[in-house]
Amino acid sequence: MANHKSALKRIRSNEKRRVLNKYQHKTTRNAIKKLRELTDAKEAQKMLPSVHSMIDKLAKKNVIHSNKAGNLKSQLTKHVAAM
């Protein structure tokens, strides 16, 4: 166990970040899944910018790699365009 006050604080703050990152990542994955399951093109077009925004936020905070974010956005855009 950590002995320094700053190390104990770092453990607490890391745990808070981990939980928040996990929540946001799971929420984004669910939104991506929901977008892929849509059959209505209009609804998918409406949902696409919000999903892109969620992906960008994860990449900005290094929860996912920026290249993965780009690949996801590209795949989703192609999927919606093909509807």
Which descriptors apply to this entry?
83 residues; elongated
**How many helices in DSSP terms?**
3
For the termini, the CA-CA separation is: 55 Å
Please estimate the helix content: over 70%
User: What's the story with the biggest beta sheet?
Assistant: none
Total beta strand runs: 0
Q: What is the string of helix and strand elements?
A: HHH
Q: Average pLDDT across residues? A: 95
Uncertain stretches of 5 or more adjacent residues:
none
- Fraction in beta strands: under 5%
Content-based structural category: mainly alpha
Shape: elongated
Radius of gyration of CA atoms, rounded to a whole number: 17 Å
Write up this protein.
- This protein is mainly α and 83 residues long.
- The protein is built from 3 helices and no strands.
- Helix 1 packs antiparallel against helix 2 and helix 2 runs antiparallel to helix 3.
- The longest helix is centred in the first third of the chain and has 33 residues.
- The protein is elongated and about 60 Å long.
- The protein starts with a helix and ends with a helix.
